[in-house]
Design brief:
Blueprint lengths: L1 H28 L4 H6 L8 H11 L5 H13 L5 E2 L4 E2 H36 L4 H15 L2 H15 L18 H35 L2 H8 L4 H13 L1 H9 L1 H14 L5 H10 L3 H29 L8
Helix pairs in contact: 1-4, 1-14, 5-6, 5-8, 5-12, 6-8, 7-8, 7-12, 8-10, 8-11, 8-12, 9-10, 11-14, 12-13, 13-14
C-alpha cells in the first residue's frame, strides 16, 4: 500500500505541473483581458498610461513562462497569490468556499451510493421484474438528463409549485446568522439533484455485479446448504457484487466536480463554482491555477482511493497497480 501511494504521489507531480502550465497558457491565449475585467467600467475612461501601469502591477505584461514560474515557486512556499477577479488572496477564496463545496459533493455522493446500492440489489434479486424494468429505464433516462435541467425542474416543482423547500442559497434571505438547520434545509435540493445525476452509474454497476454473483457457484452452494435468502444476498452476492463499484468511485469524481459546479450555479450555493466562473471570465491566472490544481488533485486522490479500497476488499488484487 505504501509503495502504491508513493508511486501515485510521484506520478502526480508532473501531472500537476503540466496542468498548471496549461491553465496559464489557455488563459494567456483567451480573448479576455484581465486588465479590463479588473478595472470594469472605470477602464473605459482610463488613459493608456494608467492601463499599462495596472497591467504591470497585475504582472500580466510579463512572458507566460515567467508568470507561471513565479506563481509556482510562490505556491510551493504556501503563497497562492491574489485573485484579480475577487480582489482577495486566493487562499482566502478557497478557504471560504471549499468547505461548502465538499459538503455538497460528499452528501450527494453518499446519496448516490446508498440509493444506487439498495435499488441495484433489489433489481438484481428480481431481474426482469417490474422494479428492475422501472429502475433501469429511469437510470438510462437520468444518464441523458443535464444536471442544470434537473436542478431547474426541482426548483420549479419543490420550491415554486409545492413551496416545501428553498430554491437556493445557504440560508434564508431574512437571516443574518448561519445555522445548521437552515444549511441542512437548503442543502436538500442541490444534494439530492447532484446525487441523482450520479445514481444511474452506481445502480447499474451494483445490479450487474450482484446479478452476476447470484449465478456463481459459491452463491449456489450457499443456497444448497440451506442458508436464508437474505444471508445469501447480503453476505455473499452483495459482497462480491460491490467490488466493481469500488473502482467506480474514483472514475466518477471528475463528473461529480463538473456536476457540482453546475448545481452550485443553479442553486446559488456559495461554493467553488462562482469563483471558478469569475476567474475564467476575468482570466484570473492565480485563482484559475489554484482551482484547477485542486480539482486535478481530487481526481487523482479519487482514483487512488478506488485502488486502495479494491486492494483491501480483494486480497487477490493487492496493491501492484
Amino acid at each position: 500500500m505504501a509503495r502504491l501511494v508513493g508511486r501515485r504521489t510521484l506520478f502526480a507531480v508532473p501531472v500537476l505541473l503540466t496542468v498548471t502550465f496549461g491553465v496559464f497558457a489557455v488563459a494567456d491565449a483567451s480573448p479576455f483581458d484581465p486588465v479590463k475585467a479588473y478595472t470594469g467600467g472605470a477602464g473605459l475612461t482610463a488613459s493608456q498610461e494608467n492601463l499599462d501601469q495596472i497591467r504591470a502591477n497585475l504582472g500580466v505584461d510579463r512572458p507566460l513562462v515567467t508568470r507561471w514560474w513565479e506563481w509556482l515557486t510562490a505556491a510551493v512556499q504556501g503563497d497562492l497569490g491574489d485573485s484579480t477577479a475577487l480582489r482577495q488572496p486566493v487562499a482566502e477564496v478557497i478557504a471560504e468556499r471549499l468547505g461548502w463545496s465538499v459538503l455538497l459533493a460528499a452528501t450527494a455522493f453518499a446519496v448516490a451510493i446508498a440509493l444506487g446500492t439498495v435499488l441495484g440489489v433489489l433489481a438484481a434479486r428480481r431481474r426482469g421484474g417490474w422494479l428492475d424494468r422501472a429502475a433501469g429505464s429511469a437510470a438510462y433516462t437520468l444518464e441523458a438528463a443535464p444536471a442544470f435541467w434537473l436542478g431547474l425542474l426541482a426548483i420549479w416543482f419543490f420550491s415554486l409549485e409545492l413551496g416545501v423547500l428553498p430554491a437556493g442559497g445557504l440560508t434564508d434571505t431574512d437571516s443574518d446568522v448561519i445555522t445548521a438547520g437552515q444549511v441542512a434545509e437548503h442543502l436538500i435540493l442541490p444534494a439530492a439533484v447532484l446525487g441523482i445525476t450520479q445514481l444511474p452509474w452506481f445502480f447499474l454497476f451494483v445490479r450487474q455485479g450482484v446479478g452476476d454473483a447470484l449465478d456463481e457457484d459459491p452463491v449456489r452452494g450457499a443456497r444448497a446448504r440451506g442458508l436464508s435468502e437474505r444471508t445469501v444476498l447480503l453476505g455473499h452476492a452483495l459482497r462480491s457484487g460491490l467490488l466493481p463499484v469500488l473502482t467506480l468511485i474514483g472514475s466518477r469524481v471528475p463528473e461529480l466536480i463538473t456536476g457540482a459546479l453546475l448545481i452550485e450555479t443553479v442553486f446559488s450555493w456559495p461554493g467553488i463554482a462562482g469563483a471558478t466562473v469569475e476567474a475564467a471570465l476575468a482570466a484570473d491566472f492565480a485563482l484559475l491555477a489554484a482551482l484547477t490544481v485542486l480539482a486535478t488533485a481530487a481526481v487523482l486522490a479519487g482514483n487512488l482511493l478506488s485502488d486502495l479500497l479494491y486492494g483491501l476488499a480483494d486480497p487477490r488484487v493487492g496493491f501492484d497497480g
